[in-house]
Each structure stands twice: as structure tokens, then as C-alpha cells.
């Protein structure tokens, strides 16, 4: 599977590629509306826990183990 | 034109076979100022490089955005990609397959995560403890209880046999299993499971330990669960044991359904 990966310090560069920035409390927000970004499960995404994005339309990933177990399943299903 | 081709064109990368590339890695390296590093399967782009001007940076963001939205390429934190690879290698188990549609989706996710954590714990206790803490932080004490039950083998040794024992009955209602499961998970720290391999003496010691725990924490109820004729008989003998009897207030409540027994002991 082809991927784009980023290190901790590049996280905000990547987030801004999708029109996101950080609010005063360290959460990812939409740059135009200020609305907080949420994962598929409705969790807000703290910048330091920003694990990435996958298609669907844009699914944001929190970097915690339960989210990664789910992500692994999703990517497996997509591989087919 | 795919993301890798666009990148090759944008950054004027030469001498690589795009078809063999698997990863674009974005880093901020303060020590090495070169913009691009290429190996057979990976292109590393240093966002700290003075060779990355504003305009190119903007176009690079567009490539990343299109890689996701047009090519469906995942854009992941490096450590996330690593962990997902490890998770994929470990795979699911027959146990969590068994519990699909039998417990809630959240509990199933917790169970699958607990199985992975227990695997990790075998080779890296520090990482195992950190992942467990993350899981508990997200899902609370229920996650701790499920992880502990999983680590101690109770899903295979108790919950699967319990489900099968209940499902064999003609009046079986799947909610009955869910209710029992929820009750046991919620009261795990104050529960004793009797297994066939557990002698009466060992069972009595386990119950005495949990009675002491109940008294320490002010819990007024200890639960005992068992399946099978052998354990049913064991329980009758255990409840007659003087040391065990000295720990309870009133007569225990014993509920038998077929060959499944639940006992509630009212702690002094």
C-alpha cells in the first residue's frame, strides 16, 4: 500500500494541506470556520494526537491504540 | 498523473523508478539541509530545507491533498504507520471472531485491542502498560476490566463456554448472555471464576482473597461464577467451608440455570 507519512514536527504542515489549523486549546480546527475537527467516532483531535487522514471523505485519525486497531481493519478491508 | 509522478515533476526528482516507490516521507530535519533523499522505495522531503520555497511548499500541500482525495493514499503519522503494520501482522483471533454480534461493538473493539496489548506485553512490558493506559483513558474502568479478563484467559475459559451453555437452551435469548456479560465485566474486581482445573482448596483461597478485597473497598457483594456439574458441586462444598462462611452476612443467593451457576455472597 502506497502511503504518505509525516514526522511529529511536520504534522501541522500536513494538517494545513487539508485546510486545518490549531485553536488556542491545541485542537485541530477548520481554518475557515473554526469548527473543531472530529473523528468518525465523534472525538475531537488534539494536534499532538493527530495520527493522520484517510479517504472517506476525509477521516481523521487520533493516535491512540483503539483508533489504530480500527484503522488497521479499515485499511485491510480496502486492500480487499 | 499519480501523487508520486506529480511530486517527481514538482521537485524535479531524477534517477528513480516511480513504479517502485511506496512512500513519501515528510520530515523536519534541522541538521541535514538537503531537500530530497531518495532510496528505492521511499522519497524523503525535508520541510526545513532552505531549498523549499513558499510557492513549492504550497504546491507540495496540493500534491498531498490530491494524493488523499484523488488517489485515496493514506496520509499517516510515521509512528501510526509503524503501529498499524504491527497490528496487521498480529491479526484477529478466533476469540474476537466468536464475540462478533454477541457483545457491543465498543466492547468488541476493546477486546480486540486488549488482545493486541497482551501480545505486546509479552515482549515489551513498558509499551504494553502504556497502551493499556491509553485504552483505559479512552473507555474507562470497563476497558481495564475487559483487558484483565482477556489477559487471564476468561474469554476462552468462561465466556465462550457460558455462551454455548446458554445457547443450548431452547428458551435462549441472546440478551441474556449480554446482560450476564455486562454484569461480570462491571463487577470483575469482585468476582471469582471457578474453572474445572481449579481444586476446591485453590477456589477457597481465591474466594477468601476476594472477600478480603471486598471488605477493604467496602464492597458488600462478591460474585462467584461457574459452569458444569463439577463446579456446581464445588460451589456447594465451598459455601459450607467455615472460613468462607465467616466472611458473609446472610445466606448467599445461588442462581442455577442448567449447568451455569451464579452466586452472590453478601459480604460482612
Summarize this entry quickly.
The complex is a heterodimer of chains A (80) and B (268). With 80 residues, chain A is α+β, with helices and mostly antiparallel strands. Chain A has two helices and five strands; from the N terminus they run E-H-E-E-E-E-H.
Topology (elements, then pairings):
The complex is a heterodimer of chains A (about 80) and B (about 270).
Chain A lengths: L2 E4 L4 H7 L2 E3 L5 E3 L19 E6 L2 E5 L2 H15 L1
Antiparallel strand pairs in A: 2-3, 4-5
Chain B lengths: L2 H8 L12 E5 L8 E3 L3 E5 L7 H16 L5 E3 H13 L3 H5 L6 H19 L1 H15 L1 H11 L2 H14 L6 H13 L4 E4 L5 H18 L3 E7 L1 H12 L1 H4 L7 E5 L2 E7 L2
Parallel strand pairs in B: 1-3, 5-6
Antiparallel strand pairs in B: 2-3, 6-8, 7-8
Helix pairs in contact in B: 1-2, 5-6, 5-7, 6-7, 8-9
Give structural notes:
- The complex is a heterodimer of chains A (80) and B (268).
- Chain A is α+β, with helices and mostly antiparallel strands.
- Chain A is built from 2 helices and 5 strands, in the order βαββββα.
- In chain A, the strands form 2 sheets. Chain A has a two-stranded antiparallel ribbon.
- In chain A, a hairpin with a 2-residue loop joins β4 and β5.
- Chain B has 12 helices and 8 strands.
- In chain B, strands 5-6-8-7 form a 4-stranded mixed β-sheet, with helices on both faces.
- The model of chain B has no long low-confidence stretch (mean pLDDT 89).
- In chain B, β2 (36-38) and β3 form a beta hairpin.
- The longest helix of chain B is centred in the middle third of the chain and has 19 residues, at 105-123.
- Chain B has 268 residues and is of the alpha/beta class.
Amino acid at each position: 500500500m502506497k502511503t504518505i507519512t509525516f514526522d511529529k514536527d511536520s504534522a501541522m504542515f500536513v494538517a494545513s494541506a487539508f485546510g486545518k489549523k490549531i485553536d488556542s486549546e491545541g485542537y485541530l480546527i477548520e481554518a475557515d470556520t473554526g469548527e473543531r475537527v472530529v473523528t468518525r467516532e465523534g472525538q475531537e483531535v488534539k494536534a499532538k494526537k493527530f495520527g493522520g487522514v484517510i479517504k472517506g471523505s476525509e477521516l481523521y485519525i487520533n493516535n491512540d491504540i483503539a483508533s489504530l486497531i480500527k484503522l488497521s481493519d479499515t485499511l485491510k478491508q480496502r486492500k480487499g | 498523473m499519480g501523487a508520486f509522478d506529480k511530486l517527481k515533476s514538482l521537485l524535479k526528482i531524477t534517477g528513480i523508478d516511480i513504479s517502485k516507490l511506496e512512500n513519501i516521507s515528510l520530515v523536519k530535519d534541522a541538521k541535514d539541509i538537503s531537500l530530497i533523499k531518495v532510496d528505492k522505495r521511499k522519497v524523503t522531503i525535508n520541510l526545513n530545507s532552505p531549498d523549499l520555497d513558499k510557492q513549492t511548499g504550497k504546491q507540495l500541500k496540493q500534491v498531498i491533498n490530491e494524493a488523499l482525495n484523488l488517489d485515496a493514499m493514506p496520509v499517516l503519522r510515521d509512528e501510526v504507520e509503524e503501529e498499524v503494520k504491527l497490528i496487521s501482522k498480529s491479526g484477529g483471533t478466533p476469540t474476537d471472531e466468536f464475540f462478533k454480534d454477541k457483545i457491543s461493538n465498543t466492547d468488541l473493539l476493546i477486546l480486540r485491542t486488549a488482545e493486541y496489548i497482551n501480545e505486546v506485553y509479552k515482549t515489551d512490558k513498558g509499551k504494553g502498560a502504556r497502551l493499556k493506559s491509553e485504552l483505559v483513558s479512552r473507555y474507562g474502568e470497563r476497558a481495564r476490566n475487559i483487558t484483565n479478563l482477556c489477559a487471564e484467559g476468561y474469554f476462552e475459559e468462561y465466556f465462550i463456554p457460558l455462551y454455548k451453555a446458554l445457547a443450548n437452551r431452547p428458551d435462549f435469548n441472546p440478551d441474556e448472555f449480554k446482560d450476564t456479560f455486562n454484569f461480570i465485566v462491571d463487577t470483575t474486581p469482585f468476582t471469582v471464576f471457578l474453572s474445572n482445573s481449579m481444586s476446591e482448596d485453590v477456589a477457597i483461597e481465591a474466594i477468601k482473597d476476594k472477600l478480603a478485597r471486598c471488605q477493604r473497598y467496602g464492597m458488600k457483594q462478591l460474585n462467584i461464577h461457574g459452569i458444569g456439574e463439577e463446579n456446581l458441586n464445588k460451589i456447594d462444598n465451598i459455601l459450607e467451608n467455615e472460613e468462607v462462611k465467616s466472611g458473609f452476612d446472610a445466606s448467599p443467593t445461588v442462581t442455577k440455570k442448567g449447568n451455569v451457576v451464579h452466586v452472590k455472597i453478601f459480604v460482612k
